[in-house]
Amino acid sequence: MMAHMGSIPLYDPNPVADASHDVRAPGGYEWWYFDAEDPATDTQVVAIYLHGFVFHPGYLRAIGHYLKRPTKRTPPVASDFPCMYLCVYRGGKIAHQFMTQYKPADFRSSKDALDVAIGPNRLTRQGDAMRLNLTGTPWQLTWQGPKTLTDQSLTADLTFTPTFSHAPAERVFLSRAMTGADHRWVIANPRCEVSGSIELSRGAAGGEKISFAGRGYHDHNYGTGPLGPGLRHWIWGRAILDDRVMTFHYAIPTDRSLPDEIHLVEADAADFSEIPVDRVSADWSGRTGVNVRYPKRLAFDESLILTSPRVIDSSPFYMRLMYEATVRGQRAQAFCEVACPNRLRWPILGRMIEMSIDKRACK
């Protein structure tokens, strides 16, 4: 890992692994990711606090322009594109979602503790628990493209209470050889009890309130450049059991001379363990309507086997799925995501993504 390029600091190494690393590298990023599932109501939630939305088409364009003329342009950095994301799934499909971009001055974070603010959205650690407060304007896909629902408001108040007490585990998750940058993965709190509520307000038309009680996962990533270069397919996910969690990354490079990259990590009350994988068996015959491929079956030796995928979210460059998982013989549900970042270079796709980002707060 290189925290400096020459004499220019790219980010700050931090012994408080889940706090800010103040990434300053051109094209860099840092995000805090949370997901949770409530099996009783078939509800899933994903919330991400983004210091530099690494898939933002505007950010990727700015990086491309800078790399063509680095002595003539100001380098784009994470603080130029702070964003907040929330998505709620019910019954196997998207119920509500928002993505909001803010001004650079609207992002604040601490290097001493988990404490992040993006506009009115706040993430804090309160004792052993983490409190997430989120608010934004939802959007939906119409025949004319994404439409911001300006007469509505989506809010969430969620508490993630870790069930394991050990310190976070940090490691590389995509190599410099594959991507041309450094990428770090902080597995912070892989198993949490989650409670709270999600509320949609429609003004005079009324609203909807969802009470949430389930279990969830939290990790944290940061890096010194975009994820997409050199990456053909990428799938990651986690399966939560009563006493352990299995989480993984599996990346297939564009350069066929490079090996696939696999990380399989098991966490229990005692510690984290990197599980060696001799063979990955993947059936990539699954395809969405926009031709995004996904595994119908994915096996990491006999340690983790994923079958029977259920697609709950699909776009032209990524998708989310629920799999039936077998973890060392035990049955569980796995929440996973597949991405094809190279598709973000498609101009029409970039415009569609930007239409889904509420930019009113950054003007």
CATH class: Mainly Beta
Largest sheet geometry = 12 strands, antiparallel
CATH H-level superfamily title: AttH-like domain
Structural class: mainly beta
Using the CA coordinates, give the radius of gyration: 19 Å
Helical fraction equals: under 10%
Mean pLDDT: 93
Strand content: over 45%
CATH architecture: Beta Barrel
Q: Number of DSSP helices?
A: 3
Low-confidence stretches: 1-7
For the termini, the CA-CA separation is: 36 Å
Give the total of beta strands: 27
Total tally of structural domains: 1
For this structure, the CATH topology is AttH-like fold
Q: What is the general shape?
A: globular
String of helices and strands: EEEEHEEEEEEEEEEHEEEEEEEEEEEEEH
Explain this structure:
The protein is built from 3 helices and 27 strands. The chain is mostly beta strands. A hairpin with a 3-residue loop joins strand 25 (304-314) and strand 26. 7% of the residues lie in helices and 54% in strands. The two termini are 36 Å apart. It has one domain (29-362): AttH-like domain (AttH-like fold, Beta Barrel), CATH 2.40.370. It has helices at 57-68, 176-179, 347-355, and strands at 4-5, 8-9, 29-38, 43-51, 82-90, 93-101, 107-109, 115-118, 121-126, 129-136, 139-142, 145-148, 153-162, 169-174, 183-201, 207-223, 231-240, 244-253, 261-268, 272-274, 280-283, 286-287, 293-294, 297-300, 304-314, 318-327, 330-339.
